[in-house]
Amino acid sequence: MKLKKFLSIHILCVLIFVGFLYYVTIFIFLNDLLSLQSSTGEFHSFLFTFIASLCVFSFFVCVIKDPGGVPSSYLPDVEDHEASDQESKRSGLLKKKCDKCSEYKPPRAHHCRICRRCILRMDHHCAWINNCVGHRNYKAFVTLIFYGTIAAIYSSVILVSNALHKDWNFDGVMPFKLFYIATGVVVIGLSVTLGTLLGWHIYLIIRNMTTIEYYEGKRAAWLASKSGLNYHHPYDVGAYKNISLVLGPNMLKWLCPTAVSHIKDGLSFPTSREYS
């Protein structure tokens, strides 16, 4: 069932692009620059292959790993201060129900219209992994962006270095120039795009926000300012604690996409009120 997720045009395009980028980086640009037969060439070839492998592995984890759905047995806690307050209790329960799938929704869960279900701590639905990015695969998504950024920058440096050292004084140089320019634009553009995305998610991790919560928070902050109040994201419990909740308490495992033993059930989360 999980393998069916790979039957997607977007995933096929990603795999073809990664294969193309790996081939031209190692067997064209790096080979021209240092020669794969040299010790330096072998070292950079091994290092780039290692980074690219981690990127592909993280990609597979993102695709296969379930982002986390709401258990069918889930029932939210609603405070019932008095026995006569049944109407208030019923109203509170209705507010916690998803109006699309009619299931109870835990805090930070949102309904995905593509997956047709509520996703725990949903960040967004990503067509490039044919999956939602949520509670259980968010770390793998972050490591995917990280390794993808490193690989793209590494490839860009090799390409530019090769272009600067290459002798262009020979007949038929124009097709090679066009190839280098086109590839350079794509790889450098990819580096900037992935680097920007990585910076964005580092910001979200430090604040313990999802992309959805960021935009919800902007509106909440605007409404609070109109009332003369200050808005604080309720799940922001401090930078280091926020990072630990997403990447784990062990720094040595932060960049391992499958090191997720610290991930809880996703039905409740610590709040700033508990740490105040």
Helix content: 55-70%
User: What is the terminal-to-terminal distance?
Assistant: 45 Å
Quantity of strands, as a count: 4
Shape: elongated
List the uncertain runs: 80-84, 87-92
Largest sheet: number of strands, sense, barrel closure: 2 strands, antiparallel
User: SSE order in H/E notation?
Assistant: HHHEEEEHHHHH
Number of helices, where a helix is a run of at least 4 consecutive DSSP H or I residues: 8
What this model shows, in words?
The longest helix has about 35 residues, at about 175-205. This protein has helices at about 10-35, 40-65, 85-95, 140-165, 175-205, 210-225, 240-245, 270-275; strands spanning about 110, 115-120, 125, 130-135. It is built from 8 helices and 4 strands, in the order αααββββααααα. It is about 55% helix and about 5% strand. The chain is mostly helical and about 280 residues long.
